[in-house]
From TrEMBL, chain A:
Pfam families membership: Sod_Fe_C (PF02777), Sod_Fe_N (PF00081)
Organism domain of life: Eukaryota
Lineage, broadest ranks: Eukaryota, Viridiplantae, Streptophyta, Embryophyta, Tracheophyta
GO molecular function: manganese ion binding; superoxide dismutase activity
Catalytic activity: 2 superoxide + 2 H(+) = H2O2 + O2
Residue ranges constituting the Manganese/iron superoxide dismutase C-terminal domain according to the UniProt record: 119-220
Protein's recorded name: Superoxide dismutase
Cofactor needs: Mn(2+)
TrEMBL record, chain B:
Species name: Escallonia herrerae
Protein name: Superoxide dismutase
Taxon lineage: Eukaryota, Viridiplantae, Streptophyta, Embryophyta, Tracheophyta
Obligatory cofactor(s): Fe cation
Keywords: Chloroplast, Iron, Metal-binding, Oxidoreductase, Plastid
EC top class, as a word: oxidoreductase
């Protein structure tokens, strides 16, 4: 319990995924948003941000923890049947937690640099690989709009080949499910809950506008770490 | 289900599927097919072709609208209720299973009550004869545009659990949407009607198969194809091997 008094809530939030260790079992918690719910307007409404963070992401966290607890119990008992049954819940909720934790960092209010194109090596790499930022944006928007059902569209980097990739994943599958060497730089949630209240069925409009609040600084930092 | 939801769900989403499919199939052979044939053809045994998503979603949404009525809800009756009791125990158990399927469909998709009287398509093997007990009501769920037609089931009832179906009225609270659907919207009359049709279809199919089997045993009727058989020496193919 001494651990608890030393670590404040704020610094827990800064531990990325909000990891806590209690009773030997790791539990996860909802990371704080680094900005107000309304700070991304008009690109994304405050109503959506609040629901998305407080309801959807929280549900993934809660259910991920629940599944992990059940996995722990089943593994201890050698209950393979239950372990196998839990796999889809783990992938879905764990993926949901991972993906959304990245997503909040992929966004920033305009006055904090949201929408500002990347400088530095990522900017170069985009121009080299895609020709220009416009081409990259159009590619991601096209793939994002064409995605059937629920999923994500990603800009990632292959950390072995040092190349940029645009990929989509379905449901809450993390980018790494498309390639073990893929590291996400930027993910755009194209589940309907990410845009419906504001854009209704017009997903292309959501995709067009979200670039105004994309936090390229974060993407650049991740890129520089993988491709120094 | 609010007017606003219907205006978007029917007026935009469903309409867009129709418009997009028409674009896709105009001038092709697919244009001549019935919607159900188009769905099966483009499902392509799981190797989904582009028109599938639009075609199946059109079918699914039509089926969904017809599964509801103003002042719906209540309980089923008659033969439908009998089968429900036989296959689920009681009505409450069916509701529970439907709710569970609808809630646990990760991502987009549909939950269904179906009548199952199908045979597997297994090529050269021989299916055992279906017993009455094998024909039953089942709850299934499917992702995105997939529907039970592709598994050769007869759908009786569906609930759309794509987020666009409930987000305006319920936001993230899918469970509340499902509850309201069961309590206030579902049309058990339509489900009963569909069950009758499904049973009739299944009986008709069985009669067809028996007829065909009898034809094979009796020998060839005019115009039927020759049966390939392994013969020790090359002989005239059309000559049937004596039993």
């Amino acid at each position: 319990m001494a651990l608890r008094t030393l670590v404040t809530r704020k610094s827990l939030g800064n531990l990325g995924l909000g990891l806590r260790q209690l009773r030997g079992l790791q539990t996860y918690s909802l990371p704080d948003l680094p900005y107000d719910y309304g700070a991304l307007e008009p690109a994304i409404s405050g109503e959506i941000m609040q629901l998305h963070h407080q309801k959807h992401h929280q549900a993934y966290v809660t259910n991920y923890n629940k599944a992990l607890e059940q996995l722990d119990a089943a593994t201890a008992k050698g209950d393979s049947h239950t372990v196998a049954k839990l796999l889809s819940a783990l992938k879905f909720n764990g993926g949901g937690h991972i993906n959304h934790s990245i997503f909040w960092k992929n966004l920033a209010p305009v006055k904090e640099g949201g929408g500002e194109p990347p400088h530095g090596s990522l900017g170069w790499a985009i121009d080299n690989h895609f020709g220009s930022m416009e081409v990259l944006v159009q590619k991601m928007n096209t793939e994002g709009a064409a995605l059937q059902g629920s999923g994500w569209v990603w800009l990632g980097v292959d950390k072995e080949l040092k190349t940029l990739v645009v990929q989509t994943t379905e449901n809450q599958d993390p980018l790494v499910s498309k390639g073990a060497n893929l590291v996400p730089l930027l993910g755009i949630d194209v589940w309907e809950h990410a845009y419906y209240l504001q854009y209704k069925n017009v997903r292309p409009d959501y995709l067009k506008n979200i670039w105004k609040v994309i936090n390229w600084k974060f993407a650049g930092e991740v890129y520089e770490k993988e491709c120094p | 289900m609010s007017r606003e939801t219907l205006e978007y769900h029917w007026g935009k989403h469903h309409r867009t599927y129709v418009e997009n499919l028409n674009h896709q199939i105009v001038g092709t052979e697919l244009d001549q097919m019935t919607l159900e044939d188009l769905i099966l053809a483009s499902y392509n045994r799981g190797n989904i072709l582009p028109p599938f998503n639009n075609a199946a979603q059109i079918w699914n949404h039509e089926f969904f609208w017809e599964s509801m009525k103003p002042g719906g809800g209540g309980k089923p009756s008659g033969y439908l209720l009998e089968l429900i009791k036989r296959d689920f125990g009681n009505f409450e158990a069916l509701v529970k299973e439907l709710k569970s399927a609808a809630s646990s469909q990760f991502g987009s998709g549909w939950a269904w009550l179906v009548y199952k009287a199908n045979r597997l398509d297994v090529g050269n093997a021989v299916n055992p004869r279906l017993q009455e007990e094998d024909k039953k009501l089942v709850v299934v769920k499917s992702p995105n545009a997939v529907n039970p037609l592709v598994w050769d089931y007869s759908p009786l009832l569906t609930i759309d659990v794509w987020e666009h179906a409930y987000y305006i009225d319920f936001q993230n609270r899918r469970a509340d949407y499902i509850t309201i659907f069961m309590e206030k919207l579902v049309s058990w009359e339509v489900v009963s009607l569909r069950l009758e049709l499904a049973k009739a279809r299944a009986s008709e199919r069985e009669r067809e198969e028996e007829r065909r089997k009898r034809e094979e045993e009796d020998g060839y009727s005019a115009g039927s194809e020759a049966v390939e058989m392994y013969l020790e020496s090359e002989t005239d193919e059309s000559e049937p091997e004596a039993e």
